[in-house]
Amino acid sequence: MGNSLSAQDLKEKVLQDLKIDVAFPFFPSDRKSGLSACCVVDTDWIEKLNAANNTNEQIILKRPGYTRKTNDAGATASISSQKQSPTVNIYVTVLSKESANSLPLYGFSNLPSKTANQVNTMQDRWPLIEYIQSLLEGKGADQKIEALKDKFNEYEPIFEEGRQNHDLFINRVQSLLWPNCKWFKKVPSAEEDFITLERKTDITETEEVEADTSNSNLPDVFSLIETEHSYYFLASYRGATLQDLITYNPGVLSSNLKKSFIIYQLLRVIASLHSRGILHGSLKASNILVDENLWIQLSGIEFEPNSKDFDLKRWFYDREMSKMTKSIPQEPLVVSWVKGEISNFSYLMALNHLAGRREGDPNFYPILPWITDFSGDSIEDGWRNFSQTKFRINKGDEQLDFTFDGPVPHHITDILSDITYYVYQARKTPIPVLCQFVRSKYEPNEYPSSMQRLYQWTPDECIPEFYTDPSIFKSIHPDMPDLQIPQWASSPQDFIHKHAEALESNYVSANLHHWIDLTFGNDLTGKGAVEAKNVALPLLAGQNSFMKHGIIQLFKDKHPQRGCNWNKTKNESHSVYLSPTAEDDSSDKSVKTNPPPSSINITNASSKHRTSSVRTRHTLLSNNTSMDSATTGLLSTMVHSGSVSGTVTTNATSNRDRTPSIHSTASSIDTSRSLPSSLMAVSAEPFTSILRTEPIRMPISVSENYFIEDLDLFEDMVAFSVKYKSMDCAEMLIKNPVYPDPPQRFIIDPTETIELPPNHFSVGAAFDMLCLGQVIESVYTAGNSKVVDSDGEPSQAPASGYFEVGNGDVSYDIAPTGKVNVSSAVTGVISALTSEDWQDRPSAKAILCASFPVMTVRDSRCSFPFPETIPEMYEYLAAFHQAEWSRRLYLADKWIDRICDLEDEAFLLLLPSFSELFTHVETRIGSISLFPKLAQRLGPDRARRYLLKRIISMFEALRPNIPKVLFNQNIIYEFVKRLGIAVFLQQMLPCYLEALAIHDDTNSNITATTTLATNTEKTGSITDLAGESLIHICTLLGPILTSKHIVRQLVKILFRDNRLRPSLVNTTVRIIGGFGSTFTAVQYSYLISLIDASSWGTKMTLKTTKTICSILTLLQELVPYMSNEALVTELKSGFISTLYQLLEPLPQSAAEDVNPISAEQLRLRLTISMKTIDYLVKATQKLTIQEWESTIVSTLQKYFSGFSMNISSVDDIKNESFSSLSAQKSYQMIYAYYQFFMIVSKEKMRRVIPTRVYDVRSFLV
Description:
By secondary structure, the protein is α+β, with helices and mostly antiparallel strands. It has an 8-stranded mixed sheet with strand order 2-4-6-12-11-9-10-5. Strands 1-3 form a two-stranded antiparallel ribbon. The protein has a two-stranded antiparallel sheet with strand order 7-8.
């Protein structure tokens, strides 16, 4: 889509135009440039854009970031004074107006022979109609099938070339793809940290376009911002791509339904784009965003094929030329590296690309090895040990052994984390991005200050910028100094050059294959990983988890060595025969080329995996003093053998005995032609026999591997390149601009008619379909595209496994799933889409139609084996994702019956759309109505897993105004039935109990009477609903569970509240009394047991007073539900004694002396005494006279015996100071006496309790 930008240019452009920071560029996996990026913005920033209306009111957007205070000297204030607004990630795509002028959109051409109506009819015609028409016209079979193709050859550009069409282009794109997107125009402003926007009002009106449900598979572009030179598309962020899923989490695509669902979405959205005259141009798995529910969004639309992938102009030019013969296939990538034709940097970047790593995304960023520790006076002083991972070097063997002995045996956790990436890039990364990904509180002094400290700090590998980009050292932050370079570099530019040069040095080249084995190859799994302490946790965890990071094993064999390691044995042997001068020269050269003493021994033994021909080729030679003597001895033996038949015995001496060689390879060589002429007279047959049996004696200085070492290395390299031929798909080699070419190369070899140009749109659409075929192939081979079996074919076994510990042994196992089993129908479609002839590639609509014969005839070349449920699933989800939230709830209710009838796998793919309704603010209340059917379909276990947490969150998030529907008795019944009683009691019952405890928390700042009244009304309503719902819950549970789980919780709430709430007491009483007198008697005993005399006998506290008063109130209200017998039993069982102690406000020891009792203690005790009187009055009303006299009278007699008020006059009582104990107690006794004689009659009271209280009461009355 126009001219791509580098990551740095894109960051600067976005910052300049929109005043927002780029977190990382979002480029296709195989490119270093692009037009999209993930940016960090304030949530207020997004809210203002979404809330903008159609008026001309301007919108001012502040640059996200910190408000930094400075002191008088201009220095930055303390970090505690910094404040950051909440941020969110979004995708931003830039399109320059210059590029928009040249981008094409297509439509049907208005041919003279066709009217507009005919053109429109053709556009809307399904292939089945054209097929029927072809039958009526008597066309042949080939012509009938041809009718299945879209008529893309009739599409023509709708804009004229050479005109300023960018406004028309954007307007049409917006109306077709994002009709609800708001278009803003940036207003010029002098403010540096603000941008001013206004709604675009002068939009050219276009024809009304019917909404296309396939637009839901495009990025959710919510705003379009036009600046002076560019357009910016702002879309919602989605973290993972299909490429990430294929590379790191292939287990997610474990079934045919899931794969088919993704392919169907791609076909639908591509068919929709093509039918509207829009090319994608860059269809790759890395441009397909995907969420955990496998719903995709096709991003990266470029409207024409990208020239890096497919140069359309060049293609048309080549079509006009005669066909050239096919060039010789390019040499394998690994062979080019071994021979030194490509640099270490380029090869490592190619391996990163094959492993799914790409520049821009910190989770999958390319990695290069650290080659030195930056501690010495030169790079060579700190050479790194390449046989150990950086994680092992940093952590040490002891810590790695500790983690390996843990529950999940592993040594390393990752190769490069996103936090490490941003620490590396800290000097050039905006502070909001650092706070988003590294640490929320920005601390500049916590970032390593030098390369040596950075190396010591990090357990991860290096990134390419330390070999290519000097700007990584320069800090853009005033409070963070530049990254210090080692002493062997004079400047950042000098460091980059020397560092890049060292990466191509002989030492690194000679040892780099060890690092490759640790990072991408053989030593990532199995015995090699254990020995190298390199067991990777992401590989152990498997690939079924949805995570945005991972490690890929590209190969499972030892990686070939660089050419600098070849011919080493020959070079060492030849040095023995050189003169002293030559030896000195050679010694000098060896110092330059060989590694230092601390380097790793790179000479490996013969490979364990040799073929039979290699094993027979190994020859152990006898020693002699020179090559000539060995040859002479051999020939002389042959001559002296003469006519000796059979075997020949040789008595040649040597310095030490050598094992006889294996001669199988010698027998295939005609040695007679190489004999001297003096021996030709001898019969050839004896000579041949001698040559086949006589050991070859070589000088003692010649190594045993003299002849076979390079042959072994060559065979290893060839076998590796053939077995892992998938590595050759790395078409684009990245060169280091600082050190682009390898320093040296190594010798390792032992020795059609001209056709008219087709329509541009049809060729571009065919290229889109080719890319789609590649994506489909990668989806169906997910998990094994980087693992190749011994036959060179893709293996179905995933690239990760698990360790089994048993009998003290640890082994690495890979699931033996066999080779890829892709159906012939799928491979047929892939073959058709990837056909070299672009005209043979079916269109997306043709595949869709042919795959469902109801709409058309079946074509074996393009009939994809979709499950029957796929179209129905898609229609629902497409409509769901495109609708407003209120309509989504309507759609869910409309479709729920059909969706519940689907098979489990299909149903679970659609379930997240329902789950979203339970959490969104606009739909969560209405979504409760969906619970019964969803829970019934899910079953108890899965209902708990998918729905329970969302239901509970409604209680928590909406408190105190909890939705009334949650208290509906039918809904409560469904909760209990679908979730199970145990889960309901444990998870949901506390929600209803807490709802019952809701009380008015209105603070003192609220003064308006109406507001307070409204809040009180709502609170009372919710409390009443909660009470009724708890009564219904108890009815469902029965008395046993009610007693165990509800009554005791209600009592705790009573004790917890600061005040006695009648609604809570009423609910508790109704629940207890509702199960009858027997149940009430049991709970009555429990409540009485809670009154512990020891807790109030000496000193009373406010909490104790509230607790006792709450219990007495509850007991008082339960009296009517008790039988007389049960009540009498409780009173006679000691409760009446407890009541007397509660009734008496003073302990017996303090009856005469009131001074020890404080005023607060007095008030608390009198409160309990008054509450006890109320209880006794209630019990008196319940009992008969006989029962009352046998239980309560004795307590009252003792209580009233303490009455001592002087009743000489009423005025004395009224004037008595209530600060004295006797006055307060006497007044309370008067009240109690009056209450009792109102119940049992005056005569009865005066008879059983003779006291002067009655006389005082008469005075008061």
